[in-house]
Please model this.
Amino acid sequence: MLQMRRSRKKAQHEPYALHVKTGDTVLVLSGKDKGKTGVIQRVFMDRSKVLVEGLNKIKKATRPNPMVGERGGIVEMSAPLAAAKVMLYCLQCSKPTRIHYETLSSGSKTRVCKHCNAQFDA
Ligand SMILES: [Zn+2]
Model:
């Protein structure tokens, strides 16, 4: 049974940069959407979670809200999943990949594919 936690638990650790960012294509490694790919819509740094478009669907019962013109009923929506369950997917070589960081001549950092050296943040 899927349960949603109502109260926001305080983060267990200081937020640190994740290996993925909004707009990245990722491969899901475990869970009900294992093996599927999707695009990251939102990153929750404090909870180390990511929201992937169209994946980790949950059914949520909503009450009607006439103020916004919402009908009540069961709405299907995507829920955030743990960032550790996703792996960055390289569109250049069509493989899930690990990254390393490189500094560009302009001084900005970019993530680079371990397989084909494609730059993600160029
Ligand atoms: Zn690659």
Notes: The two ends are 43 Å apart (CA to CA).
